[in-house]
């Protein structure tokens, strides 16, 4: 690559994309990498402030920004991901399906600690839609040492930095506890909220049982739903520490191993998560899920829907970013809630 005066550039090959920006009008590529400069291009180039141009001269051990960006994309790529066109030394990673986007943050950080290269992503464990932009890769200079890209490849190893997991075809069973609902004193307004959230991840409801505040009834309802083929069981009501709130103890009696009763998330501190021996998940949802726009349920459900088993450590790490500010209108998931991990 060498620098020459634009007025002397006719016949030379431009080695990088040149962007034209007019405020509130246009921001686009005026000249593409590889373009051979013509006489009529000179006034246009000068009008966008390009009095000098960098023209391509291949050097041993050096990579053009576009070549380097493609190598960085190769470090990221995985099933259900696709690249954008290489433009101005940048390749974007695009979702090819709806699913749960996950990033190996430790390896990403190590690569971004290197000079002159970068990979920017959405947060890990982020629910995305087909066509969403997930990440962008590029190098900072127009040319970069090939050795730096080899080092990035070594850090990445054989496993891609990113994955996009499709949602499973799951069936959920819902247990609604509470004497006031069981006896028809008040209407069940909790279950419709849960069903709406399940629908976002194509989870169907295979059974719904309303039970009194009696441990045996709760255990039997859970057992029946599981025997009927539920892939996920959700219990609502009776999740506080009051003596007559029996849902947590009943979940334990049903045979599930409790992973966490309580979470460092607001709203959602009284959330319960457990698994049966066959790894069927069961959740106890606190009352806030019924009225708050975004809660612990919204952080956990996409992972469960994608078949990711959640550990106690996963729940513990949710404390960083686990405070919802209750914005009006709610912007979740396009906000900081749950973005600590």
From TrEMBL:
The gene is moeA2. One of its GO terms (cellular component) is cytosol. Residues 173-306 form the MoaB/Mog domain. Pathway: Cofactor biosynthesis; molybdopterin biosynthesis. GO terms for molecular function: metal ion binding; molybdopterin molybdotransferase activity. It comes from Clostridium saccharobutylicum DSM 13864. Belongs to the MoeA family. GO terms for biological process: Mo-molybdopterin cofactor biosynthetic process. The keyword Metal-binding applies. Its EC number is 2.10.1.1. It comes from the Bacteria. Keywords: Magnesium, Metal-binding, Molybdenum, Molybdenum cofactor biosynthesis, Transferase. It catalyses: adenylyl-molybdopterin + molybdate = Mo-molybdopterin + AMP + H(+). This is Molybdopterin molybdenumtransferase. Catalyzes the insertion of molybdate into adenylated molybdopterin with the concomitant release of AMP. Its cofactor is Mg(2+). It is an enzyme of class 2 (transferase).
